Amino acid sequence: MTAKPRENSNQNYLNYVKTQDPPTKHLNNCVSAFLVGGFICSIGQFIRYLLEYAGLSGDELAGATSIILIFLGCLLTGLGVYDRIGRYAGAGSIVPITGFANSVTSPAIEFKTEGWIYGMAAKMFTVAGAIIVFGVFSGVIVGLVYMFV
User: Fold this and answer.
1) pTM > 0.85: yes or no
2) Contacts (Cβ under 8 Å, ≥6 apart) of 88
3) How is the chain split into domains, by residue range?
4) Rounded distance between C-alpha atoms, residue 102 and residue 106, angstroms
5) What is the rounded distance in angstroms from the CA atom of residue 18 to the CA atom of residue 7?
6) Do 105 and 125 form a contact (C-beta atoms < 8 A)?
7) Does residue 88 register a pLDDT over 60?
8) Cβ distance 74 to 105 under 8 Å?
9) Segments in the chain forming alpha helices (H)
10) Where does residue 40 fall: left (phi above 0), alpha (psi -120 to 50 degrees), or beta otherwise?
11) How confident is the model at residue 129 (pLDDT cuts 50, 70, 90)?
């Protein structure tokens, strides 16, 4: 007999949450994420075309495009623009490479007051920063190995 009051209290709680929580606009969220993510990717494609016109090709072209997009993501994060884009676009701003740049730069900026080593450098390894920093670090190591072999 104790199960019924517990189920009733759970249902009461769920009903209370429904009244307090505004309804999610799934369609609007999906459309804004699609448009902003597509726009970011279109900017990347435009940068790629410009670099291809400048004479880059193959791996150099892909690397330069990625570096420019990462720089733009970090710059917009530092200026506070990327946070506003993220509030509007949600996952549309997180999925492209600029979103990963944002997730590295944001903690570094937030903990800058704690110093260069214990603040900025240590906090860069939170969120997706560890993945990006590890990827860049391992890429440098592999590049050095290829250079000397």
Assistant:
1) no
2) 32, 36
3) 25-148
4) 6
5) 17
6) no
7) yes
8) yes
9) 3-20, 26-53, 58-78, 81-89, 91-94, 97-110, 122-123, 129-148
10) alpha
11) low
Contact between residue 91 and residue 33 where contact means Cβ atoms under 8 Å apart: yes
Given a contact cutoff of 8 angstroms between Cβ atoms, the answer to whether 73 and 98 are in contact is: yes
- Measured CA to CA, the distance from residue 106 to residue 120 in angstroms comes to 10
Q: How far apart are CA 106 and CA 61, in angstroms?
A: 27
Q: Which two tokens stand for residue 50?
A: 């410009």
Q: What is the pLDDT of residues 7-62, one digit of tens each?
A: 677 888 888 888 887 777 888 889 999 999 999 999 999 999 999 999 998 889 99
DSSP 112: G
Q: Which of 79, 76, 54, 75 is nearest to 65 (CA)?
A: 54
Q: Among residues 109, 135, 108, 134, which one has the least CA distance to residue 122?
A: 108
Q: Which two tokens stand for residue 77?
A: 């994060």
